[in-house]
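Hi P.,

Sorry for the delay on this. The queue was packed all week, but I finally got your sequence through. Input first:
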Amino acid sequence: MHVAAKYRQASLYVGDLHPDVTEDLLFKKFSTVGPVLSIHICRDLITRCSLGYAYVNFLQLADAQKALDTMNFDPIKGKSIRLMWSQHDTCLRKYGIGNMFIKNLDKSIDNKTLYEHFSSFGKILSSKVMSDDHGSRGYAFVHFQNQITADRTIQEMNGALLKDCRLFVGRFKSRKDWEAELQNKASELTNEKKNNFRDDMDDERLREVFSKYGKTLSVKVMTDSSGKSKGFGFVSFDSHEAAKKAAEEINGKDINGQLLFVGRAQKKAERQAELKLMFEQLKQERFRRCRGTKLYIKNLDETIDDEKLRREFSSFGSISRVKVMQEEGRSKGFGLICLSSPEKATKAMTEMNGRILDSKPLNIALVQRP
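Then the structure:
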């Protein structure tokens, strides 16, 4: 086995660290199970404050496995650490293979309880209960080693009771999947919401517009205290098919000089919950996609712009994002580049760090986020 590959496999991610935890403290803890090659606490590039996570590289794979088995959720400075294998499989990260989303969790369920409950189904790569300053937010992510295990878990646990809460357990959805599902929902239900009316739109005129698509059960233009239209209303059909046809044909159509928006009616709480869930899943997806691939570049000459920076790094592979930070049209002397893989980002950092670019030596560091 190649030595570098062996060390990578013996690498653990350590999350949920107390801000005051140091490399020395982690070294003392993890060296009790075996020789430790290196420990790196990830820090903010500007303030140097801990970002709350670190990487521990063991000499032997067996020692890393022992640490994972015996030290996961141990308290350090009053906070339970969260251990998992440092994930280098780009397919697992990119496509969310084996990744699940769980909601309606009892607020007492913490990371340790979640892990213990779901680890009975198979090997877990990572798991996390999402929380804020007030505690659990009632949902979590669990990432299994393979999709077969995840599917079996979903089948058995979706709708199951855990501490008197009925769980929703489903596959993690990418941004593309979310957009497709939300679009489909707009045509699945019979209750449709119409936005962007003219002031003179009333119930009868709205009924005339939509009645040709099927039988309407109710039609209502929302008005203010003076009886003036608020610019939106609701139409309820007697069938999904009629609602779907209306949504497809009228959404974006010009009616008396106004473009109508037609979408599924939602309660405020449902709308907020859906947006909140989408945001968290998108954040998780961005983290998996960019983890270990983004470079922070300092000491840029003022003449360096986005395109020139892209050209200088293009030899290292595909670049998904490049940005030279500016203020009032002038370079601030630093920027970001996101490459297609951690290996290419590491190679670019190794070869370009210190290289002179338009009279200034580059200062490059790997950006990592929890």
